[in-house]
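Preliminary data (for renewal application), PMT complex.
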Amino acid sequence: MLDKKKSNLLLCITGSIAAYKSVDLARLFIKNNFDVRVVMTEASKEFITPLTLQAISGHQVHENLLDTEAERAMGHIELAKWADLIVIAPCSAETISRLTQGRADDLLGAIFLASEAQKFIAPAMNMNMWSNQTTQQNIEYLSSIGMDIVGPSKGEQACGDNGYGRMSEPEEIYETIMLTQNKSLIGKKIIVTAGPTREQIDPVRFISNNSSGKMGFAMAEAAAISGAEVILITGPVSLSCSPQIQRLDVQTADEMYREAQSSMSDADIFIGCAAVADFKPVHANIQKIKKTDEDRLNIELQKNIDIISSLAREFPDKRFMGFCAETERVEEHAKSKLIKKGLDFIVANDVSKSDIGFDSDYNEVSVFTDNSHQFFHKASKNLLAIQLVNLLSKENQSLH
Ligand code: PMT
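Predicted structure:
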């Protein structure tokens, strides 16, 4: 964990249109008491000038492996030893490939080999370059040798394509790195529920909702970044998660409850992000219900188990974070659910807004505890998840 003294961060910039975002990233770290030095590759200088980064960081930018000036001041070995953290943002496909080969014929490559600092990579490239099997294998390899990969995120790209490949926003990179530095969740077990549940009416019809699972999956990924062991219990969604997350797929609220209950005894925190169907048909028809001449069809419904409140009652020594989806009087309903369900935190999102909440890549939430209220402005679900897990992590730290 970084101590309170000024920490040393080496920001490496490679050739990508996202290089302009490195300025904001450097600023964020400097504002938060980091001493930032910058390494730039030849290609990066096509996108942003060393002078800009020198002005921001207050230090001469390091550019060449063999540089008499640099050797008198800070050469690659000194820089490698100086750094507490190394961040490559943006990191091009070319640099990712070079790192897998352990190349040391430029300053960045040599520093990477020589440094024992924790290393972070924020990829930035065209979506097809990112999804290419070679890049994916390279990323898998770098991750397997201990490098932390932040992003990339999804969205419109400079080339006009729309998909995964954009460098994550500076705030997300910063918050992710800070989350890895607060070690209070390492070794903790966190259970996250995500997505909708599906309650069958007959073999071809069901009751469900618009939850895509994005918020819950982002929470699970953020919890994994914090060093916790994560179990993700998800309803039917079309998302994938990191291999270190244990994923359990379920359909119904009853199945979700059973899986959660059987994992709870040695868990520390439960995060209920799933949009669990509140009701299920009393009887699921074995055969498809046939259309008749009647204009109406009555399906009798019964209440589903309330997973989070049942678990909170059964396991009073655990911490519980619930989400609540509201379309009106958001704060009032959230506070009431916090108490009624016996939770430690409730994360309220206003799902009447079309640009956040269900199925959006963005959200905006307020977190209530019994004595506090914190607002998190509209951001990607990934960033919000990192911020929420940071909140849990800080709270966990203050409990010890
Ligand atoms: O999946 P996305 O498309 O990304 O959308 C994210 C989201 C809007 C689904 C998410 O942010 C969210 O708000 N999830 C909770 C939705 C919900 O069911 O809210 P609720 O107010 O009905 O429930 C409150 C809490 O009780 C939740 O933690 C819920 O998981 C839990 N619950 C509810 C009903 C039930 N039978 N059992 C439960 O455990």
